[in-house]
Amino acid sequence: MEMEHMQQKNDPRTEIESMLTEIRQETFRAGYREGRIEARISIIRRMRRMGMEWPMIEQITGLSWQDYRELQEYWPAQTS
Q1: Would you tell me which of 32, 52, 70, 79 could form a disulfide with 47, CB atoms 3.0–4.6 Å apart?
Q2: CA nearest 41: which of 7, 77, 1?
């Protein structure tokens, strides 16, 4: 039984499967983060169009004006 476990541990397929799982998980986390950022940008844009002042937007979203400007640099297409 122990020999079988050692063979599995050194099996390149097992290592590749493990790496692929890790890549999938990181890709999912990155996509999730990007989606959350894009959603916040969209909400802020709508608030601005409704005439909300920045202090109220900051209180609701938790993002300062500077944070928002930095997001504009990172996601320019989302913040025009």
Answers
A1: 52
A2: 77
pTM for the predicted model, two decimal places: 0.59
Cα angle 35, 47, 70; round to 5: 55
What string of pLDDT tens digits covers the 80 residues of the chain? 454 555 556 777 888 888 888 888 888 888 878 888 888 888 899 999 999 999 999 999 888 999 888 887 776 655 44
How long, in residues, is the chain?
80
The DSSP-derived string for 51-77 is: T--HHHHHHHH---HHHHHHHHHH-GG
The CA–CA distances, whole Å, from 60 to 16, 40, 41, 47, 72 equal: 44, 10, 13, 10, 19
